[in-house]
Amino acid sequence: MILRFITYVLIFLVSFLVEARAGELLCEVEVNSSMIEGTNKSVFESLQKSISDYLNETEFTNLRLKDNERVECRLFLTVREYSGNRIKGDIQLQLSRPVFNSSYMSPILNLKDTKVDFEYREGDTLYFNENGWTGNLNGILDFYAYLMLGLDADSFSFQGGEPYFEKVESIVQRAQSSGESGWKIYEDDRNRSAIINSFTEKKTSPIRDLLYKYHRKGLDEMAVSPDKGRSAITAALQNLTKIHSVAPGSVCLTIFRDAKLDELVNLYSKAPQPEREEAFAILSGIYPSERERLNKIRNPR
Questions:
Q1: pLDDT < 70 stretches in the chain
Q2: Diameter of the chain measured on Cα atoms
Q3: Residue among 89, 97, 79, 77 nearest 259 (CA)
Q4: Which pLDDT value is given to residue 18?
């Protein structure tokens, strides 16, 4: 009897610890090292596990989410250079969120970071330090973890991502003195500093209003009323025009394009012609190089 009780207690404790280690993200991680020849591949297998464990087990917030509430995302790291313990490459990030009353996952982020450069030794364990700088790999992972949490929260509630974007800004500030690439304000207009600025600066902040209205007032309503939901999306797209008028080169416009244009083509495939024309006019004015793809909104087949 006592042995059975001890067994139940151990099972409970193990279950509790496993559940407690699960963070807010449910992230699929893949490290591709096919470009690197003549190297022991175990270091890249170790790196993949380290990144996966870090993103999926770290508690970045005080939230306690059930498995079906975790934020679903993907991280693909392509290793382009490996020398000593230095790894350089690209990261492709994909973030999606569920649409209410459907099995559809709507893409929010499809972003490529080409300035990934960090030190890593096989077997290294990554530790979360909320208020310190523990290396460029940690900095990059923390940056994107909080960015994705912020974008996800913004899509469910107006300005809901504010506390996470504040975390991102703090990470960028700490990174400025690290000397690592991809963080400096004036390095280029697509780096990590530019990304977070595009969501926090006043002139481009309508992108956050767009995220909320597009998803919560638009997509989430379409299961009940497709016409009403799509109309809300059409109205929300006007935020792109506001941003384009004051910051036509903002990276947030690129981020929206890369995540949403294919979805928008599908959304308007059954819309009335006047609505398709309105959406086409907005989008083609902002993304003139995408007119061929956007023509499918005006003339669906």
A1: 1-21
A2: 75
A3: 97
A4: 40
d(CA 152, CA 157): 9
3-state secondary structure the chain: CHHHHHHHHHHHHHHHHHHHCCCCEEEEEEEECCCCCCCCCHHHHHHHHHHHHHHHHCCCCCCCCCHHHCEEEEEEEEEEEEECCEEEEEEEEEEEEECCCCCCEEEEEEEEEEEEEEECCCCCCCCCCCCCCCCHHHHHHHHHHHHHHHHHHHHHCCCCCHHHHHHHHHHHHHHCCCCCCCCCCCCCCCCHHHHHHHHHCHHHCHHHHHHHHHHHHHHHHHCCCHHHHHHHHHHHCHHHHHHHHHCCCCHHHHHHHHHHHHHHHHHHHHCCHHHHHHHHHHHHHHCHHHHHHHHHHHCCC
pLDDT of residue 7: 37
Q: Which amino acid is at 100?
A: F
Task: Show contacts of 166-175: CB within 8 Å, 24+ apart.
Answer: 167/60, 167/130, 167/142, 168/143, 168/196, 169/196, 169/200, 171/139, 171/142, 171/143, 171/146, 172/143, 172/196, 174/132, 174/133, 174/139, 175/133, 175/136, 175/139, 175/143
Predicted local confidence at residue 300, as pLDDT: 82
Instruction: Answer positive or negative: Cα dihedral of 131, 22, 116, 73.
Output: negative
pLDDT at site 179: 86
Sheet holding 86-98, edge to edge: 25-32, 71-83, 86-98, 105-119
Q: How many CB atoms lie within 10 A of CB 264?
A: 23
Asked if 178 contacts 136 with a C-beta cutoff of 8 angstroms, the reply is: yes
**Buried residues in 187-196 as b, exposed as e (16+ CB within 10 A):** eeebbbbbbb
